Amino acid sequence: MNKYTFTSAITLLLLIIILPVYAYLEPFRMEKAQIELREEFVSDAAVLYVQNCAVCHGASGEGIGAMPALDNDGLRTADYDFLYKTIARGRYDTAMAGWHMDEGGSFNDYQIDELIAMIRYVDWPQVGELAAAQGLIPPTLPVPEVDEAFLAEVTALDPDGAVWAEGMQLFANNCTICHGVNGEGSDLGAPLNTPELRAQEATAVTNTITNGVPGTAMVAWDNALTPTEIESIVSFLQNWDIIEGQGLALTPPEPIQIDLNNPEEVLALGEHLFATVCATCHGEEGSGGTGPALNSQQILTRNTDEQILNTIINGGHRPNSTMPAFGDRLTMVEMEALVEYIRAWEPTAPVVENPRGTAQGGGPPWLRATPDAENPIAPQGGQGQGYRGGANPDFQRGNQGQGQNDQSQAAPETMGPTVHLSGVVVSVNENLLAFQTADGAALAAMLGPPWFWSENGIPLNPGDQIELEGFESPDHMELNWIVNLTTGERLDLRTPDGMPVWNN
Could you report the per-residue pLDDT of 407-424, keeping only the tens digit for each? Predict the structure, then answer.
């Protein structure tokens, strides 16, 4: 066999091997190429959208007023020709103009194809983030503006129209954040513009607004609204279909454009967001309400910007907290502006005795537990003078007893032996510390009442090296002091004479 024959044979053998492999891999290569092209189309189209379309359809495709939302399954699965013609030629008798160059617009065929790819495949919250990064702030959790002319039209609809108009104004100012501008509901609040709600008794709806719904973000409004105002909202809700039937609907505000390089504009954005999103629970300028007083030295000096941002993103972490998560509802730009606004209070923030409010204070575990309805406690003839143990004067409060304070103020000689430990943090769940000692023992300790630790505790993260001194109480270990050796921070939980610092 000469060398030419040998070379031909090798070439033929390679072709026999390579061609089937190529044929097998070709579909995967094509799929990968299509994915990359689709990602390129979507990325380019998102920029076009923010610059040209977001002002009408919303920064995250949520729709504004009569302009439809683009973030919906109907459009994602719509026919290509329908989408192309709609963008290129517009929609007759609507505000949607033709955007193709042939129609007087600014897009060519390629750009319209990019926009179609975006409508079908884009992650809309990321478009909102892109818009916010360019200073186009979406009307997230919008509070619609209701002018006098609009309210006059509502008033003229019915003899009770003035009550409906007042309720509509109150709803716009207080309820749209959770329940949507048109009562469509959200992950924070139930839909309210429904036949089911209109079928309810007015007293039942009034009771819900007045007292709230335990275990949800629906707080009691009896401290923020008068009974008459609540009745106006109920009247509006139960006649909303009549108002809409006359073509009267609340309209969300449009996005706003700000200069993110201007600190004053960013601070103003944070102030606006706090007033519309946060003040309902946290009070005007963070003075406190159903939520903690954020404008306080205890909150601001013991929480970093990252911790505040994390709470906004993920919501409250305490049991029964009604603080919702805003990570899916606000852009990062908005949340960072909120943090800057809150942080700006620190130089003048007052010391608030209990920034979480008396309604959210600790309470012993036995009192916070759900009572057993089948085993009520029979009274044992207590004296009604502040006794803690029925008729036994050994437990009497005040000046009549010496050293008979409650167990949380017990003197050192009543405690278990003092222990000195060091180890590594495993987890911190509210006020319960789990840690592992050098010899591998898994231990747990209480870090004071939940309300005390949440406002005064030092940061403890998994993996931090710690040192502590504590003692065994009847059902758990309590601490005298703890040091985070990783950060160098120390907190004393008891005074030298053994008294809890939270009782001082």
Answer: 333 444 445 678 889 999
Encode pLDDT of 201-253 as tens digits. Answer: 999 999 999 888 866 667 778 877 899 999 999 999 999 999 988 888 887 76
In a domain, 499, yes or no: yes
Whole-prediction pTM value?
Answer: 0.42
CB 302 within 8 A of CB 294: no
Q: How many domains does the chain have?
A: 4
Count the Cβ atoms, other than its own, within 10 Å of residue 305: 12
Q: What is the pLDDT of residues 129-169, one digit of tens each?
A: 777 776 666 555 556 778 888 889 999 999 999 999 999 99
Q: What pLDDT sits at residue 364?
A: 43
3-state secondary structure of 48: helix
Residue 490: strand pairing partners: 483
Amino acid 239: pLDDT: 93
DSSP string, 61-121: S--BTTBPPS-SHHHHTS-HHHHHHHHHH--TTSS----BGGGT-SB-HHHHHHHHHHHHH
Q: For residue 372, tell me if it sits in a domain.
A: no
On whether residue 403 sits in a domain, the answer given is no
> β-strand 442-446 against 432-437: which pairing, if any?
antiparallel
User: Are 276 and 327 contacting, i.e. CB atoms less than 8 angstroms apart?
Assistant: no
Region for 368 from its dihedrals, namely left if φ exceeds 0, alpha if ψ lies in -120 to 50, beta otherwise: alpha
> What tokens appear for 77 in the block?
């699965």
